[in-house]
Amino acid sequence: MKRAALLALLVFVCPLRADGPAAWVGEYQAPATRLINEATRDQFAWDRLSVLTDTIGHRLSGTPELDRAIAWAVSEMNRDGLENVHTEKVMVPHWVRGAESAEMTSPSKHAFAMLGLGGSVGTPRDGIEAAVVVLHGFEELEAHASSVRGQIVLLNVPFTNYGETSRYRRAGASRAARHGAVALLVRSIGPNGQRLPHTGELNYAADVPRIPAAAISSEDADLIERTTGRGGKVVVRLKMEAHVEPDVESANVVGELRGRERPDEIVVVGGHLDSWDVGAGATDDGGGCVVAMEALRVMKKLGLRPRRTVRVVLWTNEENGGRGGVGYRDRHRDELSKHVAMIESDNGVFRPLGFGVNGNDATRQTIAAIASLLAPIGASDVTSGGDGADIGPSVREAHIPGLSLEVDGSKYFTVHHTQADTVDKIDPAEIAKCAAAMAVMAYVLADAPARAGS
Ligand SMILES: [Zn+2]
User: For residue 24, how far is its CA from the centre of ligand 1 (angstroms)?
Assistant: First the structure.
């Protein structure tokens, strides 16, 4: 047996022992404590995020704000003393919202709280005015297919969880258009309250006409539902200038702390720098970018240079195209096999719980052993997951262990993709703990004697 194989065996067998984490992880107790203390000693992460969100704001692909955020990230990484700081060009879609409105014109006048869905086509200049058919899912849509022609369909499905209800936002327009609907309204994909519409991407099917689509607040959806439920007819006028312009140049931002022994082996940490064009993209995903940057900053500050390279990647265009994640995979194809792990933070930066992991049992056991070092901040849970949107293309192609920072998600979908996604929703102590979790996980994966997942 080769020495490397023996080491790997030791690494993966030890976590199975009943007496706790592998002995090798115990040796990381001291650096983990230092990383946690450094990341949580002040509110550096929150302050940095507030500068991004207050001075640049939201950052949709194709906007000057995203360009400014990219330049800002390069300069911040240089300020942190990172190495090999650079941008990697990616062409991204350029969807423009334009002016938009939706109002009830009968039985009474009432302006809805609405947001067009990302990627939607616009309406004619004078808008689309039609009666509304209220439906509660795709089965009901199919059952009432003959009644939607020439009408506006409202899919009024209460939020349960994102996976379950976001499909109405994604696929609703084309499902309704297939039966002749002229526009789609979807009840906002998020918990009720505060009359706050949520935007997000839709996907048009290739073989049906593209109809305009918008989210309306749950309160407005329920108003329509009550009115039609009483036998009334609701007429809505929808006006949207939304349109797509030619692709524009954008970039992923990359910085590194080069490994001291095996610099060609890489642990990636990252988040996405783009956001929707509402709110300030604080929770989704400015916070994820900042905690990934923090992982390297605190290592650098403490003089902790791991065996392997830790690379921070701030992806572009996660929200409406995913081109940053694909671009990273394509550009780094030759070195994907040298990627030890990829860690994405895109679930918000609330109280950290641990990590989701996509990998074999041995990988999970290694991650669990490392996560045990995060017990002081309550972030030791290891669950399945780890298939983030930006790491996904690389992780799937090269079977790289993928990790996602998992947090208390109870507040995430109240602000996600809304005007309320601002930095005040984030607690300075919680984002600092997220940074600590990212730093410890990345550092130990990059420094461990044997490579995870090998
Ligand atoms: Zn996101």
Answer: 34
